[in-house]
């Protein structure tokens, strides 16, 4: 293989006067911002949807099921195109122009990524709640809690502990899924990766660096949530992320 290795090219200046390693740092920053923003939205909305799908109210269950069925079965990149290019056309003219011209692209990317991931988290939350013994709900009602208070104080604290390993996987995946946002103009890590390859043709060096960065981001999230899982585990009830009665 006649390949010319040149690790020093990262310190060369690009067309904009910035060095290529600065392009990488900028891309990593945007990847982190979009990923964490999307994760926060996904956790909040996914939790609400997961709860809705376990309530006795059939209307709430139907709304939650429809949302999950739609957002889980449409590819993320198609959803992003919908939010960027199609959704503004259905708004009133002034609102649509504001979304297309004034709203920062990264906000729309966070929304698209968050709504997609929320459907997956909703499944995990639903599974966690349904895995709990019915006696926990009945005990809460017997103590005078309302239905929603049994979720807040009894069921959700245990359900989250059960599904935390699955939520960890979703949290790691969102960093990888954020690479799709390059297709709608977000200057995240994968976008910079493609740009640098086009400018320098140093494919192997940049591929190794970007791979390590993605690994580091996902692994850091894994370790953080592993600590949370260890600290919140209930002795005798959950062992190694598995629920028991």
Per the CATH scheme, the topology name is MetI-like fold
Shape: globular
Q: SSE order, as H and E?
A: HHHHHHHHHEE
* Average of pLDDT: 89
Report the end-to-end length measured between terminal Cα atoms.
59 Å
What is the number of beta strands? 2
Largest sheet, strands/sense/barrel:
2 strands, antiparallel
* Secondary-structure-derived class: mainly alpha
CATH architecture: Orthogonal Bundle
CATH superfamily: MetI-like
Q: State the domain count.
A: 1
Computed over alpha carbons, the radius of gyration is 22 Å
CATH top level class name: Mainly Alpha
Strand content of the residues, in percent?
under 5%
Strand order of the largest sheet: 1-2
Strand-helix topology:
Elements: H1 20-52, H2 58-73, H3 76-86, H4 93-101, H5 105-130, H6 134-142, H7 147-177, H8 189-200, H9 203-232, E1 238-239, E2 242-243
Helix pairs in contact: 1-5, 1-7, 1-8, 2-5, 3-5, 5-7, 6-7, 7-9, 8-9
Structure description:
This protein has 245 residues and is mainly α. The termini are far apart. The chain has helices at 20-52, 58-73, 76-86, 93-101, 105-130, 134-142, 147-177, 189-200, 203-232; strands at 238-239, 242-243. The model is unreliable at 239-245 (pLDDT under 50). The protein has a single domain (7-243), classed as MetI-like fold, CATH 1.10.3720.10. Strand 1 (238-239) and strand 2 form a beta hairpin. It contains 9 helices and 2 strands.
In short:
With 245 residues, the protein is mainly alpha-helical. Helix content is 72%, strand content 2%. 28% of the residues are buried.
